[in-house]
Amino acid sequence: MSNFIQAEEGYYSLGTAGYYVMIAFLLINLILWTIIFARKQNNTRFSAKCIAFCGVAIALGFILSYIKLEMPNGGSVTVLSMFCICIIGYFYGIKVGIFAAAAYSILQFIQGGGAYMLSPLQICCDYFFSFTALGITGFFYKKQNKFILAYCLAILARGLFLTVGGYLYWMDYMPENFPKSLAFLYPVIYNYSYILVEGAITVILLKIPAVNKMFKRLQALAEEN
Questions:
Q1: How many helices (H) and strands (E) does the chain have?
Q2: Cβ atoms within 10 Å, residue 126
Q3: Does 97 have pLDDT greater than 60?
Q4: Nearest in space to 81 (alpha carbons), one of 191, 163, 202, 190
Q5: Are 138 and 98 in contact (CB under 8 A)?
């Protein structure tokens, strides 16, 4: 079992084999759920228009991710970058949403992941899994007026992967002045603090009638044959 789970000074961690087993398990689940929902939605065609829309949305999200308020130990509040990725799945379905979000996760890793590589699982939690989770808005494909719900669930899912990575790798970076009674919640509080701030800003903007009207026009344009 030492290759899967290692014990050191009273703490347990995954061994090398354990990391790869967990990564494989998460990837298999992601692929299976994508296939299942893609079949239910009968949404398997990547049209030229769909590809062009995805390219523009990913590029815009990537550019907006540079306009940010950075957190001290990683993570940031950006200007609608998650929104740009979340609309892809909502407009085109789970298959397109997952693939586009996965492509975006690679760009995010290239942007800043090289400076913090502790293990394959850490990279996946902080980049590949967390950003790919934004594609689950595709579960709400063709459901009218459900984008805000889809968006909120997607960013919460992203935060979940970041929190798992926080518990496994970043607890040592907890500030000394952080309340000891809340130490076990540090990864949750830290990661969701900036994710929920960006989420709240996005939801507030979408509630503005003029912005909501523009969003619906964009959706109609994306769905036109």
A1: 9, 4
A2: 28
A3: yes
A4: 202
A5: yes
